[in-house]
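Anyone up for a design puzzle?
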């Protein structure tokens, strides 16, 4: 199995192939964001050609696209890729990062007149708060998402804000590029067919859920074998009406969206479901999972960092209220809540910590495992 650092080293080894001009134009050199753990890395990634499909769905059927990817490095990558892989005919793009999230974004959108939005769901949701012109929002015909699993709450939000947009999803990573094929009309949310240009595997499986490993040629002389992307998925075994025999469902980032510990699983979607039920009391949240050594046992502990509403702090003991309600409603197994596991002595009681804000991140990381 290959790690991200090993992939980065091989990428630098592959630079010798770029000395030939016919290969050089097919590559992008970029820096990862480092938002999901570890330090940013310099990576080399092969571009897909216009005929290979994959990320071409970003451009298909639209003429004026806005790309929302948060980080400046992603902004530069999208612009660079567009120059080399833009579709035939007229197509304009505008790339947006964190520095653009201000009231002037609404003016910029009126001037650009986009017909599609593409990028990371959590960042697009943040950007929409700065786009107030309903005529612009009504003019969006396509919403094309990647990099994150789309939650039910996000899907509902986008359908309300962008009533005429068709939601399509692709899947890939900064290190690899495309991992999914073109979107398939028969697949459900967060479901994909693997890109035919790579070898796709699911390894280290437990209860049918495992980590994505991909193998591909980075250059004519460098083959990447079983690179672990850090993404979790499961195979969908029902046949697809389109005829493709392989389908996977993306579940989230390992140790960030989908955390396994001590026979239980904390899922971001489940955490968001519970927090949405108490939206009158909770504005936003983060959850950190630790495994604590108590005598000769290892017990998990969940620390809930909460931005509370005014209504919450009108209570005499807001921390005790949230501890009780969250414990009784957050399921960590098919049939057991956090409270049940605490009562059995399998978990430590959860901690409740009130905060005023959270540090900015290009990707929305609401749950994570910490040492």
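Challenge accepted. My sequence:
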């Amino acid at each position: 199995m290959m790690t991200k650092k090993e992939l980065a080293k091989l990428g630098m080894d592959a630079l010798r192939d770029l000395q030939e001009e016919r290969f050089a134009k097919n590559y992008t050199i970029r820096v990862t964001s480092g938002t999901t753990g570890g330090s940013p890395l310099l990576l080399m990634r092969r571009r897909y050609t216009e005929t290979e499909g994959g990320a071409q769905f970003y451009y298909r059927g639209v003429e004026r696209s806005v790309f929302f990817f948060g980080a400046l490095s992603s902004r530069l990558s999208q612009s660079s890729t567009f120059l080399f892989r833009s579709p035939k005919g007229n197509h304009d793009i505008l790339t947006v990062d964190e520095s653009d999230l201000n009231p002037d974004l609404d003016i910029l959108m009126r001037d650009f007149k986009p017909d599609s939005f593409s990028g990371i769901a959590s960042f697009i949701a943040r950007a929409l708060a700065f786009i107030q012109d309903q005529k612009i929002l009504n003019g969006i015909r396509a919403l094309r998402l990647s990099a994150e699993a789309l939650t039910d709450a996000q899907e509902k939000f986008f359908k309300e804000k962008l009533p005429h947009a068709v939601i399509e999803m692709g899947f890939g990573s900064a290190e690899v590029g495309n991992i999914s094929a073109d979107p398939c009309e028969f697949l459900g949310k967060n479901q994909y067919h693997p890109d035919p240009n790579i070898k796709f595997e699911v390894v280290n499986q437990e209860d049918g859920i495992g980590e994505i490993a991909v193998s591909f040629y980075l250059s004519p002389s460098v083959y990447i074998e079983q690179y672990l992307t850090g993404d979790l998925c499961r195979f969908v075994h029902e046949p697809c009406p389109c005829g493709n025999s392989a389908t996977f469902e993306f579940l989230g980032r390992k140790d960030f969206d989908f955390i396994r510990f001590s026979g239980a699983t904390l899922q971001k979607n489940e955490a968001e479901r519970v927090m949405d039920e108490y939206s009158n009391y909770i504005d936003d949240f983060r959850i950190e999972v630790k495994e604590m050594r108590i005598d000769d046992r290892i017990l998990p502990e969940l620390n809930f960092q909460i931005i509370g509403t005014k209504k919450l702090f009108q209570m005499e003991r807001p921390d005790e209220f949230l501890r009780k309600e969250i414990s009784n409603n957050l399921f960590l197994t098919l049939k057991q809540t956090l409270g049940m596991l605490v009562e059995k002595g399998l978990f430590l009681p959860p901690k409740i910590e009130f905060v005023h804000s959270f540090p900015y991140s290009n990707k929305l990381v609401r749950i994570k495992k910490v040492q």
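A detail worth pointing out: The two ends are 23 Å apart (CA to CA).
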